[in-house]
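Sequence in, structure out.
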Amino acid sequence: MSPHKHERTSDFRDWIITAFGVLLLLITASATLIGAPTLPEPVSRTVMVGGSNSVVTFPTNFWAANQDRVLVYYTNVIDAPVGGTGDMLAANNLSDVDDAPTARTNLGTDNATNLTTGYIPPGRYATNTVSPWALMATNSPSAGKVYGFDSGITGGWYTPSISLTANVTGILPKANGGVGIDLTATGGAGHVLQQGSSGGTITVGSLSFADIASKPTTLSGYGITDAVPSSRTITATSPLTIGGGSSADLSANRTIALGTVSIANGGTGATTQQTALNNLMPGSPVTGDLSMYNGSNWVRFARGSDGQVLGSTSTTISWTTPTTSIDPLTMGCRISASTDPVPATDQVGAGTLYLVPAAKPTSYAGGSGAGRIALYSGGGWVIRTVSASGTTNLTLSLTASRNFDVFAYDNSGTVAIEVAQWDTTGGAGGTDSQTRVSVSLTWQDGVLVKNGDATRRFLGTIRSSGTNTVEDSTSRSYVWNTDNQVEKVLRATDTTDNWDYTVATYREANGSSTVGTSRVEYIDGLGRGLVRARVHSIVYNASSLTTVASGIGIDSSSTNSAQLYGGFVSSNGAVVPADYSGYPGLGLHSIRRLEISNAVGTTNWRGDSGSTIHQTGMHVYIMR
């Protein structure tokens, strides 16, 4: 070959080389201009792709000498993060806690099971720009595949094997997409990651309420909607319960005021104790009712009949009529012409008869002022009481100068009295004065009652001093009691200065027949009363020593019934007494002062002698 030709050949080669070099430069420049990526060197043969703790493992032959770059593609975005978001190393706030309290009832609890923990997403393992060769892949990319190429600019999509049991351990540097902190700490359910200080060790533990920063200082700051109100209305259907032991402390300025709570809602329907008890009493109680438990419920136990007492069996209680427990002899009352059982003053022309306690209420300390009396009710004896106020009385309707028996009976729980005349056939003059004709008495359990009607208890006997009246005075005792008798003194005195009687025949003193002057009268309903009488006479006879006598006549002005009597008088005068003691018997009786003198000279009998020095007369002592 000629040198010249060789020179031309050498020049052509140089030109070709130069042109090829320029072409390479242009290609390189154009590649640079269109943004071809520069992929980082792989740091290991495993990279994190997708979810938490998932590891992509490439085939063994993938990492050849020229296969030194890898493109990770997930879900159409090369660097899309997965998992939760947020900086978990920053200070914890109340909003970070899922179960932050919303009511006072759970304020301060931290036992939630779904605390927000999150995790640090995987770092970026490729550039954020998709390379041209990735876009020119022969097959469409899909999540979880990687693209590899070699120096020959050839490559393809690879499906790596995924191991769900492998864990990424150790510290992942920030340069490789990590946080540069060891996150391998483990904990129990509901625990969270905690860092004691900036850059410090991460630990796992429970998040307590005290650990929460920026806690609010008011209830509204916690989002609590049931804060304590300044006042609250509690309705009857909403019971109030205060716990915490035997007592509870209410904050200042908190007042609980409950009105009337109905029985249906657990109340009493009342604001006072007495009304509450009345409301809770079953049924419609009346005076004397009791409340009794019948084994299932509380029921009204009605009061019994008059005279009944409360008895019991092994299963229940009941009212019964006693037959032996009440003493029929019980009698604590007296009939009287006044509300005083023993009048201290004369009762003349009294039109009302009273049954009163036998003793005055003021007679004994602690006296109740009530008199007890046993009355026969047909089935047995009952105890009743009478008041000292005289509420048990009878307005008299009497024929004058007649004897009447007085009876007490039970009138539906109240003591009443009635009278029965001895003789309704007697004429003027009182032929029934000492004999019962139209009425009679009998015994019932040792107690005198009206014959034919044992419910009428015999109280005593009265005598009418006039039409519809009785008298109880110092000269007439027309009210007689069969029980609780007391002694009464009757008196007859003559205020005449003196008189003469010198006859050997008994007569009534000074020829009088006046009650209270020469005689006294009384009534005895049974004739068993002892009567004692004494006459005091002063006698003169100026002629000579003379035999005289004073006497006591029982229903007689001419017959002396005195047991002790007689004496002698002269001009000097003498006291001539007479004494009687005996039982005149049943009915009306007149006790009379008598006198007698031998017919010698003139015998002078004194009354009061016209002075305050002398007073003659008669005293009679009776039981009534």
